[in-house]
Amino acid sequence: MGMQCAICGKKPALGNQICRRGKAKYLGGVGRKITGISRRTFRPNLQRIQIEVNGSVQRERVCVQCIRSGKVKRPQKRKLFQMPSSL
Fold it and tell me: What is the number of structural domains in the chain?
């Protein structure tokens, strides 16, 4: 599914974008005034990465919060190095 995290299911959320003008009171002005409110979407930060699901490697769209928190298991790029046992 487009624009949705494969792990946590995070999707775009709707909100408002507020335009203001004027100088803040703490800077010596009369205060900030709202001049316009328009709708906007907050989109999740999705990345297409390879993840390991049930032992198989798949390419999925995963949000960065899931990647950084360790909810995603990344596949090994190559086998681990081992010393030769013939001594």
Answer: 1
